[in-house]
Amino acid sequence: MKKEFKNIDQFAEGELLLVNKPYKWTSFDVVGKIRNAFKPLKLKVGHAGTLDPLATGLLVICTGKMTKQIDTFQAEEKEYTGTIVLGATTPTYDLESEPEQKFSLDGLTDDRIRSACQQFTGDIQQYPPAHSAVKVGGERLYEKARRGEEVKVKPRNVTISAFEITRIELPEVDFRVVCSKGTYIRSLANDFGASLDNGAYLSRLRRTRSGDFRVGDAWEIMELVNKIRELKA
């Protein structure tokens, strides 16, 4: 159920907004749209937990004094659903780049695919994608990748408490994942393919939950913007 707002002043005091991030919008696009809706009021607006442009779903936005709690919200467990495509890899591990290496799907049974999930549950080590916003030497990895530079990155410890396959229609495989902060689902997709001696990339991703907050309670971005404008009038 969406939270309702009575007046514009409560946003300055500090509010937590749940937004359903649209496809191909960056998380910063959403923050900017909301910040602009408050003009001429100058209000702090920030998000807790970045979503890639091709991902959709729950984005937790904080305003005013609530922005001091962004780190707390960002650290909470996340839940995602999505689709992995087997039989190919892409440099970005998703559809931001074109498939390159191709693999045969022969020998990929439902049992093998479902069993492969087990090695990715619990506390694991994961390498961030080369095309990611992780900083190395003060520069984003994707900036180095675009120049063709190969950079050695350290693995990070993440926790995946649930990884289940919900549909298999090769080459597509649907999944649900519950994981800790800092988990790259793109890397999970790529590693999942490699564990099957195959290739894989992420073709769809949706964040359905962050902590106790659910996407079913989120505002559509323009619905929220219009509500803010209405409260200012």
Structure commentary:
The chain is an alpha+beta fold and 233 residues long. The chain has two domains: 9-75 and 212-232, Pseudouridine synthase (2-Layer Sandwich), CATH 3.30.2350.10; 78-210, Pseudouridine synthase. It has seven helices and twelve strands. The protein has helices at residues 9-14, 27-38, 70-74, 110-116, 141-146, 185-195, 221-232, and strands spanning 15-21, 45-48, 55-63, 78-86, 122-126, 135-136, 139-140, 156-169, 172-179, 200-210, 213-214, 219-220. Strands 1, 2, 3, 4, 5, 8, 9, 10, 11 and 12 form a ten-stranded mixed sheet that branches. A two-stranded antiparallel ribbon has the order 6-7. A hairpin with a 2-residue loop joins strand 6 and strand 7 (139-140). It is elongated and about 60 Å long. The two termini are 25 Å apart. The mean pLDDT is 90.
